[in-house]
């Protein structure tokens, strides 16, 4: 009996020790990076809480939608309505997607982050990619891609735009590559560059990796970590800056 109690106490001590191991979390503020220390158990609790909040919010937004297309459009409209462009002078804070939702403010890549994350939580493959105007990558926009009816469809949440092909469907990457005129918004200029030019180098997606959005889901994150540990999957950076 004493031996069993001793083993139990040792295991309990080991668990407590592991759960209190120091970890870090990062927060970007106006291009700078702050690193905060916290115990492992707090990081796990926060991760599980964010997962729950994303599930609840995505279900609420899409409760009246039946198809993936309807769900994606419902999420798109919710983000456009509820996540606002920051007023001039506001700090750009880059941390978790949930905090963007709580703050209700976000720049282009953050709006795309909210949109694609909620799509993934609605069971729709989605990701976002920084699309530069040229190879130097200094000027670009973050475009969201959602997999609908067998094709990656193109959305720009920040500019409140998605495009239609000649059949009236939401334009895919292939549609835009074939006909750049599908991209409207010629009156929009970003750092002096006409909007449509950001789509001139758009490329097909070959998704063979776990996206950042999918890593918010505990089971998919666990699968990724195991695969990454054994060298079966590498990190894929799809953005200009990742915090």
- Describe the main β-sheet briefly: 4 strands, antiparallel
Q: Give me the number of helical elements.
A: 7
Quote the CATH topology of the domain at 52-206. Answer: C8orf32 fold
Can you tell me the overall shape? elongated
The span between the termini is 51 Å
Question: pLDDT under 50 segments (min length 5)?
Answer: none
Please write the string of helix (H) and strand (E) elements.
HEEHHEHHEEEEHEEH
Q: Please state the average pLDDT score.
A: 91
Helix content: 25-40%
Count all strands and give the number. 9
Structural class: alpha+beta
Query: Per DSSP, what share of the residues sits in E-state strands of 2 or more residues?
Result: 15-25%
What descriptors fit this protein?
alpha+beta; elongated; 243 residues; 3-stranded antiparallel beta sheet; C8orf32 fold; 7 helices; 39% helix
Task: Record the SSE blueprint.
Elements: H1 2-19, E1 22-29, E2 32-39, H2 40-61, H3 68-82, E3 93-94, H4 97-103, H5 108-121, E4 126-132, E5 140-148, E6 151-156, E7 161-162, H6 173-178, E8 189-190, E9 193-194, H7 218-229
Antiparallel strand pairs: 1-2, 1-3, 4-5, 5-6, 6-7, 8-9
